[in-house]
Design brief:
Blueprint (H helix, E strand, L loop, with lengths): L1 H20 L3 E4 L2 E6 L3 H4 L29 H35 L19
Antiparallel strand pairs: 1-2
Helix pairs in contact: 1-3
Keywords: Membrane, Transmembrane, Transmembrane helix
């Protein structure tokens, strides 16, 4: 049980890392272009310093150079923000079982139970 809990905790933690550092890809059925959104780590907190020079979108969002109408850009950027928000929500949902499984892995007794204390034998000479 201890090994299983530890393994599951590590797997869930790796999924959380992927959600934090992974770049979501968006594709739209009415437009063949694929948009590469910035990761949660790359987007950072909402701040003007994270925006590009025109203050339009995060510098980590990569729009295709052609095939996207200018009126569609705000919607695409909103979709990227919503995808990052979804990733953060999944990370929050995974945090609780990850911590609980990690705690179980640390605090559960080992499979063999507690070890017998070693008794020191004293030798006496008669």
């Amino acid at each position: 049980m201890r090994m299983t809990a530890g393994t599951l905790a590590v797997v869930l933690f790796l999924v959380m890392l992927y959600l934090f550092f992974g770049n979501p890809q968006l594709s739209f059925k009415d437009n063949p272009a694929t948009v590469s959104c910035g990761s949660v780590a790359g987007a950072g907190w909402p701040s003007d310093e994270w925006l590009d020079t025109a203050n339009v979108h995060h510098v980590t969002d990569t729009l295709p150079s052609s095939g996207v109408a200018s009126e569609a850009v705000p919607g695409i950027l909103r979709d990227c923000d919503q995808r990052r928000t979804t990733f953060v929500g999944f990370m929050a949902l995974l945090a609780v079982p990850t911590v609980l499984l990690g705690a179980l892995a640390v605090w559960l007794p080992r499979k063999g139970g507690p070890a017998e204390p070693k008794v020191r034998k004293e030798f006496t000479s008669d």
